[in-house]
Design brief:
The chain has 141 residues and is mainly beta. The protein has one helix and ten strands, in the order αββββββββββ. The strands form three sheets. The protein has a four-stranded antiparallel β-sheet, with no helix packed on it. The chain is elongated and about 60 Å long. The relative contact order is 0.19. Mean pLDDT is 78; it is low at 38-62.
Length: 141
């Protein structure tokens, strides 16, 4: 089997361009999977509300509080449409199940519910920012 380096290069470029961690390409009997090493975002040995967050940044922040994470890879939006009122603001009291953000994936708007009651302590992603599965999007106290 001859490996097509051009396809691998293109897939690798897409990883960077779209800020992805993994990409798979299949054509007939050929299957190519490219991925890049990322730091673990959560540790399955901890409960859902006690995630350990590690970053590749030299200055690692110590995060305390209840973390609401992205359930999918996509683009995070703070409001249901441009110019509309944001779902959450810092200091706002929210209830479990209340929408805190929308993550768009493949042109589908996925409402992200709060996993707990609390007060919004920090919004960890900017409006329109790409997010990964398991990435912390807001922190509650």
């Amino acid at each position: 089997m001859k490996i097509n380096k051009k396809i691998i290069k293109e897939l690798s470029d897409y990883l960077e361009e779209f800020n992805l961690t993994e990409l798979e390409y299949t054509e007939k009997d050929t299957k190519i999977k490219v991925s890049k090493n990322n730091v673990v975002l959560n540790n399955p040995s901890h409960s859902k509300n006690e995630k350990i967050v590690e970053t590749s940044n030299p200055s690692v922040k110590n995060i305390s509080g209840i973390q609401v994470t992205s359930p999918i890879i996509g683009t995070a939006y703070h409001a249901p449409e441009p110019g509309a009122k944001k779902f959450v603001e810092i200091g706002k009291k929210i209830k479990k199940g209340e929408t805190v953000m929308i993550v768009e994936a493949m042109k589908t708007m996925n409402h992200v519910p709060s996993t707990s009651d609390g007060i919004v302590k920090e919004i960890c992603v900017k409006d329109g920012q790409p997010v990964e599965f398991g990435q912390t999007i807001i922190i509650l106290e």
